[in-house]
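quick one before i forget lol
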Amino acid sequence: MYGPFRVSSLASAVGSMLLIAGSLPALAEDASTFYKGRSLTIAVPNAAGGGYDTYVRALAQYLPRHIPGRPAIIVQNIPAAGGMVMANQLYVTAPKDGTYIGMVRGTVLEEELFKNSQVEFEGRKFNWLINMNSDVDTCVASPASGIKTISDFYIKQAVAAATGVGAQSYSFPIAYQKILGMKFKVISGYRGTPDRIMAMQRGEVNSACGITVSTFRSQVAGFARAGKVLLVAQAGLDKDPRYPDLPNMLDEAKTPEARQMMRVLFAPLALGRPIAAPPRTPADRVALLRKAMTDTLADPAFQSLAKKVRIDIQPMTGEETARAVDAMFTISPATAAQLKFIIGK
């Protein structure tokens, strides 16, 4: 008398179990086999041919040989809103399975500190994989300016060429003026570093900051060797080891608050080319990608390519990158708001 009822109940129970199983995620695959037959997308926060793009495409050539399964690499350029759209996409909508990663601009991370309403991410929750290059900025002056040492910035008028508000070529000298008390005046509207250097040669301006060491070495060093430009100071969380005797603007900050603001200002330089996976990416895949990227940057073939395309490689591990991001958020909200006001964000 109970047969039909029991069979029906069993069938119903099995059906329910299958329905539940279908709604659950597939069993996790071992990271060592996950990438076989798959592709890995690396998002880039600028257009093809730009600096970030050059770094990622160089990495993409040799990264597969260091990932088990040798996935195909897809480079996706998302230049909208200065990298903000890419960072939001990486955090919110990108796959969280290890098949999608991206290079995040340090200046975009800074916008979280400044309470930018466009920010949809939390920088400390990204899974940081590596930082391909930690950079340092420079300030240069023309011989006609009379500016030869960092002390001269306090007593001589430094008319600095900049691209526009928001660019480091603008925000750095403005910060030096308003935080350190140096005599900077900023003239905006120049297209880029070569244009700014030519403006110095024409006598329109007599100085420029917001020129990273890597850019100085590739675009300005020839002018310096010819005596047409003087390298006066560097700016960064640490000195560039190639210029140990060049003074650091950070050391000019005389109060704890001023030093904290300067450190936040320079943090995007240290985070020059950081790559992250989205939150909730499986930990074993994060670990695998961290190792693969570290191994790629140590690969002689990659190093040869980096030299050929003239990109500096001064890397941080994923763990070091995460600590550098964490350090940005030690600034108090009030000091962050003051810095935002000073640099016109």
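fyi Confidence is low (pLDDT under 50) at residues 1-27.
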